[in-house]
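ARCHIVE CARD
Drawer: 12
Card no.: 0347
Subject: one protein chain, sequence and derived structure
Cross-reference: see card 0346
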Amino acid sequence: MRRDYPKVCVIGLGYIGLPTAALLATHGIEVTGVDTNPSVVKTINSGNVHIVEPDLDWKVHRAVQSGFLTAKTEPESADVFLIAVPTPLAADKRPVVDHVFSAADMIAPYLRPGGLVILESTSPVGTTEQLCRRLAERQPDLSFPITTGPAAQSDIAVAYCPERVLPGRILTELVDNDRCIGGMSSACAARARGFYEHFVRGSCVETSARKAEMVKLTENAFRDLNIAFANELSMICEELDVDVWDLIALANRHPRVQILKPGPGVGGHCIAVDPWFIVDAAPDQARLIRTAREVNDAKARHVLARIRALIDKHPHRRVSCLGLAFKANVDDLRESPAVEIVERLADEHGGRIGAVEPFIQRLPERLIQLGVQQQTLDEALRGNNILVVLVDHNAFRELDRSRLADAVIYDTRGIWSEPAGLLGKPLLSVELQSRIAAA
């Protein structure tokens, strides 16, 4: 092992933790990855992966075979502890940070003077301070920046550094993207920056922990606001009988306009979740951010109503929903509006509903219990079904359009609708789909 590099313990081997652990290990850093799920640990130690991400499989295999990456259910002593655990929402839209504090309790017995603890999980503002206090309570013989003050050196450095990666490009963006490194003190930020510079080619910018926490939330709230504009615009266009895809293509010819594409809602653990952290922290001030979240959540209900209208119009056709992931070309179903829509449809129509998701081997258990049939794309196209495009996977986008001739189509992603004003008459415009749904 290369002792000029620190030994690292990564807590949480999910969509961020495992790629980070594999990346560190392939840079010659000794890494222990920790996950409370024994099945995940067993899979990784066999050189395999439990999530889909380009190049992750061979990188994990190589890291495990080289001995630089080992997975366990309990942590061990290390120079750097990196926490990458989930921070979900409760039913009332309040953030749940219990996993962060559980991770703190796990690593506290293994902390030694000179150690560095970095929280990467998306967190409400102030979480890093709470983490620091909890570690100090668990290890009273060590000094922490929360006990020594910002100007003094402490035994343990604590920092916050959120990821900024796009599923499907995680391994590339972990290296190339800039990192915002928030320390509990300037010394903590400098320590954390030194660690990231082992493997990050982007700029590593030092700031405070609270500011770094807010930066992450702000980035995703900004994206949510822009998506909400597109989703609201699509519903307005349906009301006014205007093709939204054509409209956006024409509006985007303005040099200072770049409208995003609408969809059936917003999913994933970041954009669909993080704005609520801001709303929870400042409910009276975050009016626009709250409204954007409500618009995007409402879009899934709007799409559901449109599908119900098609089902009523065509009572003898089955429904095939194309896509369950929260975005194109990944297997991640977290907070996916497509899953919510299919589940609601299955509640009402059971076995009449089918789902095509090429990036998973098995449907979620809840959908199976409701009678949803897992289909291949070929099976969905053979039955003169109602086809509902919920995710713009490449496999759907590149489909030979002649195979759609006998289907009733509702394309929430616009992948089969060419902009009429720019490229000629659309094949299947939202305007046409609106008439089908309303007929």
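Annotation on reverse: Residues 209-240 form the longest helix (32 residues). The two ends are 69 Å apart (CA to CA).
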